[in-house]
Amino acid sequence: MIDMKQASNTVTLSSKYQVVVPSSVRERLNLKPGAKLTWIEVDGVAHLVPVKPVSAYRGIARGLADSDIPNDPDRL
Fold it and tell me: What is the pTM of this model?
């Protein structure tokens, strides 16, 4: 469920098509100057998502055994 207090940060698109990320969002997401963000549009809704460095994914599959992955015939 979405907490509307946290979700209702209204911003204005400038004449140069720029937006400012509200400080409450920057703090919650720990965004710093120079952080990379990507826009994802799904069914007319725009999502602004922080891009994590590759190193942030190190160990993501730690503890995963081969037997945990289904062996579907259509997989290469």
Answer: 0.57
